[in-house]
C-alpha cells in the first residue's frame, strides 16, 4: 500500500560541472521507496540490545545444530579419574631442570583423588616420564624412551615426535612400552613432638607420586605434612594405640598426636621393552642425568570421538545423519592416557565434560520453547477465536474454563501435572510430555487476550462487509481477522519463549523433567544443589549462565520487535 512506503532522499549524486558562464552546479536526487518490511528492519536495527540478543541467539542455535562437531567429548562418557575436575589449564612453557623451551599449546594429565595424607578430595596435574637418561656406576649412559613419543619413518629411522624442542634422541637408547617409577613411601605420626613411623614402608610402582613441581625426579624425594584432624583421627583409630612403645587409648592417642607426615623417595626405574620383557634399574647402581615428561598437544580439527565399530558409544553425527569423525578442537591423546582430557568448563562429578554436555543440552533447552509455543498458539488461537467470534454460551464456557486454570498457581499446577504421570519415562517421551504440559499452562492467558482483540476486530467495517458477502466464518476468521493480530502474536510469542525454557529448567532441576544421563541446562544445575559441590566445583553453575543469557536475549528481541511493529517507529 502507498501509505506503507516512505520517500527517502538517498543515493545523492552530485554532478560537478564548471560551466564557463559561472552557473551553480546541478544536484540530482534519486527517489527510493522502502517497503514496510524494510522500514521495520530499520527500526529494529536502531535497538542495539535487540541486535545483540539476535546475534547471541544466532550463535547459540548454530552451536546447537553443530553440537557433535563442537563437543570434544561424548557427553555421556564417564571418567571417575576426573570427578569434579576444574577447567583444564592449557600450557605453553615446558620446564625441566636442564631444559626450558616454548611449545605449542598442550595439557598435562590430571586426576581427582582422595589424598591418603589428610583424606580430603583433591585434584592435581601429573607427570609421566617420556625419557629418562641414567648414568650407570660403570660409566655407561643409557636413555629409556617411551615409544609413544617417537615415530618410525619408512626407512626404519626413529625420530622424536612428542619430545620437547631442543631434545634429540640419545646415541644409546631403548624404546619402552612404558616407564614407571619405583617409590618407597613411609608414613609418620608426631607424638609429643617426636616423629614415629607408624606403618611399614612400601614400594609402589603404580602410585601417582610426582606432580608439576618435579620433586621426585629433581630431588629424589617428596615430603608432605598435615595437621588435619581427619588425618590424625584416622591414625589414632587405626594405629594410635600401638605407636612406639606406648600402649594408649584412641582418645589419648588423638590428644597426643599433633601431625602426620608422608615421605616418598625415588628408589628405582622400571620399564618394559617392546617385547614386554621387564627391567628395573635401582638408583643404588645408577643416577638420573636428565629426564622429560609427556605433554599432550591441543589441536584443531582432531578425531577425539566419533563412529567407531570397536566402541559403539563413540557416536557423533552432523545434522543427526552424517557420521562425524573430526571435531573442532581437542587434545591429541596419542597413548590413550586415561588421565588426559581437555575440559574448558571443567567436569561434573562423573567426570563428564561440562562443555560437551552444555552444547548437547542446548538441543532440549533451545527447542522446547519453540515447540511448546507452537502448541500453545494453536490452542489459544482456536479457543480464543471461537470465544471472540461467536460469543454467547461458547464464550462463557471457554472463558470460565480459562479462568479456572489461571486461578491455580502456575508452578504448582506444573508440579501436579508432572507428578500424576510416570517418572521413569525415557528422555524422549519426557521431552514431549514437558512440551504439552508447558503448552497446557500457557494457552489460557493468551486465549483471553486473543478473544478480546477478536471482539474488537469483529466490529470493523471490513468484517461486516465480509459477512454481508456471505463468506464462511472460517474464512473470515483466518483470512481477515487473525492476520490483523500478527503484531501481537509475534511480539508476545517472542516474550513467552523464555517462560518455556525456565519451566523446563525448573522441572528438570527438581528431578521431574529431563533425567540422567540425558542433559538439559536444568538438570545439569541439579548437581549444584549441594553446598560442598558448590565450594569444590563452582563451574557446575555455568549452565545457569547460559539460561540467563538466552532468556535475556529473547527479551531483548521481544522489545525490539515491539518497537519495530509500532507505526510511530517507522518514521
Automatic annotation (TrEMBL):
Gene3D superfamilies: MetI-like
Boundaries of every ABC transmembrane type-1 domain copy: 362-558
Record localization: Cell membrane; Membrane
Chain segments annotated as transmembrane: 49-71, 366-389, 401-421, 427-445, 485-503, 539-558
Membrane topology term: Multi-pass membrane protein
Keyword Transport assigned: yes
Keywords: Membrane, Transmembrane, Transmembrane helix, Transport
Residues covered by region (Disordered): 1-23
Biological process, per Gene Ontology: transmembrane transport
Ranges of compositional bias, category Basic and acidic residues: 1-15
InterPro entries linked: MetI-like, MetI-like_sf, OppC_N
One Pfam family here: OppC_N
Gene Ontology annotations for the cellular component aspect, listed alphabetically: plasma membrane
Family membership noted in the UniProt record: Belongs to the binding-protein-dependent transport system permease family.
Record's protein name: Peptide/nickel transport system permease protein
Amino acid at each position: 500500500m502507498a501509505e506503507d512506503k516512505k520517500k527517502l532522499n538517498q543515493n545523492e549524486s552530485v554532478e560537478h560541472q564548471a560551466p564557463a558562464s559561472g552557473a551553480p552546479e546541478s544536484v540530482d536526487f534519486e527517489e527510493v521507496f522502502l517497503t514496510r518490511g524494510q522500514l521495520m528492519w530499520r527500526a529494529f536495527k536502531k535497538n542495539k540490545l535487540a541486535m545483540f540478543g539476535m546475534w547471541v541467539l544466532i550463535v547459540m542455535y548454530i552451536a546447537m545444530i553443530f553440537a557433535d562437531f563442537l563437543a570434544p567429548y561424548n557427553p555421556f562418557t564417564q571418567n571417575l579419574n576426573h570427578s569434579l575436575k576444574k577447567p583444564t589449564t592449557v600450557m605453553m612453557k615446558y620446564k625441566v631442570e636442564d631444559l626450558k623451551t616454548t611449545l605449542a599449546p598442550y595439557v598435562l594429565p590430571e586426576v581427582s583423588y582422595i589424598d591418603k595424607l589428610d583424606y580430603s578430595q583433591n585434584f592435581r596435574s601429573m607427570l609421566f616420564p617420556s625419557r629418562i637418561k641414567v648414568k650407570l656406576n660403570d660409566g655407561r649412559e643409557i636413555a629409556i624412551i617411551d615409544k609413544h613419543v617417537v615415530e618410525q619413518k619408512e626407512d626404519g629411522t626413529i625420530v622424536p615426535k612428542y619430545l620437547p624442542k631442543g631434545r634429540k634422541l640419545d646415541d644409546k637408547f631403548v624404546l619402552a612400552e612404558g616407564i614407571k617409577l619405583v617409590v618407597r613411601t613411609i608414613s609418620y605420626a608426631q607424638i609429643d613432638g617426636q616423629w614415629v613411623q607408624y606403618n611399614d614402608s612400601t614400594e609402589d610402582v603404580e602410585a601417582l607420586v610426582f606432580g608439576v613441581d618435579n620433586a621426585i625426579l629433581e630431588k629424589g624425594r617428596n615430603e608432605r605434612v598435615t595437621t588435619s584432624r581427619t588425618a590424625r583421627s584416622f591414625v589414632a583409630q587405626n594405629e594410635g594405640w600401638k605407636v612406639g612403645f606406648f600402649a594408649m587409648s584412641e582418645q589419648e592417642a588423638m590428644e597426643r598426636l599433633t601431625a602426620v607426615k608422608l615421605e616418598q623417595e625415588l628408589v628405582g626405574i622400571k620399564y618394559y621393552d617392546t617385547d614386554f620383557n621387564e627391567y628395573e634399574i635401582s638408583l643404588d647402581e645408577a643416577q638420573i642425568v636428565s629426564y622429560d615428561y609427556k605433554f599432550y598437544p591441543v589441536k584443531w580439527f582432531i578425531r577425539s570421538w566419533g563412529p567407531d565399530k570397536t566402541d559403539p558409544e563413540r557416536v557423533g553425527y552432523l545434522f543427526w545423519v552424517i557420521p562425524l569423525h573430526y571435531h573442532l578442537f581437542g587434545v591429541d591423546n596419542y597413548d590413550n592416557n586415561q588421565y588426559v582430557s581437555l575440559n574448558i568448563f571443567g567436569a561434573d562429578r562423573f567426570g563428564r565434560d561440562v562443555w560437551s554436555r552444555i552444547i548437547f543440552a542446548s538441543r532440549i533447552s533451545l527447542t522446547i520453547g519453540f515447540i511448546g509455543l507452537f502448541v500453545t498458539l494453536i490452542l489459544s488461537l482456536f479457543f480464543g477465536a471461537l470465544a471472540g467470534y461467536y460469543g454467547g454460551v461458547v464464550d462463557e464456557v471457554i472463558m470460565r474454563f480459562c479462568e479456572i486454570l489461571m486461578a491455580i498457581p502456575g508452578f504448582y499446577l506444573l508440579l501436579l501435572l508432572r507428578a500424576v504421570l510416570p517418572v521413569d519415562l525415557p528422555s524422549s517421551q519426557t521431552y514431549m510430555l514437558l512440551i504439552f504440559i508447558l503448552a497446557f499452562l500457557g494457552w489460557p492467558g493468551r486465549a483471553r487476550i486473543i478473544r478480546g482483540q477478536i471482539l474488537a476486530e469483529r466490529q470493523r467495517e471490513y468484517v461486516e462487509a465480509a459477512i454481508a458477502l456471505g463468506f464462511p466464518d472460517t474464512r473470515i476468521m483466518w483470512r481477515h481477522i487473525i492476520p490483523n493480530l500478527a503484531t501481537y502474536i509475534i511480539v508476545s510469542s517472542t516474550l513467552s519463549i523464555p517462560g518455556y525454557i525456565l519451566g523446563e529448567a525448573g522441572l528438570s532441576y527438581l528431578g521431574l523433567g529431563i533425567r540422567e544421563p540425558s542433559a538439559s541446562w536444568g538438570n545439569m544445575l541439579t548437581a549444584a544443589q549441594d553446598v560442598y559441590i558448590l565450594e569444590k566445583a563452582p563451574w557446575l553453575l555455568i549452565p545457569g549462565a547460559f539460561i540467563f543469557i538466552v532468556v535475556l536475549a529473547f527479551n531483548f528481541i521481544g522489545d525490539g520487535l515491539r518497537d519495530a511493529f509500532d507505526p510511530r517507529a517507522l518514521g
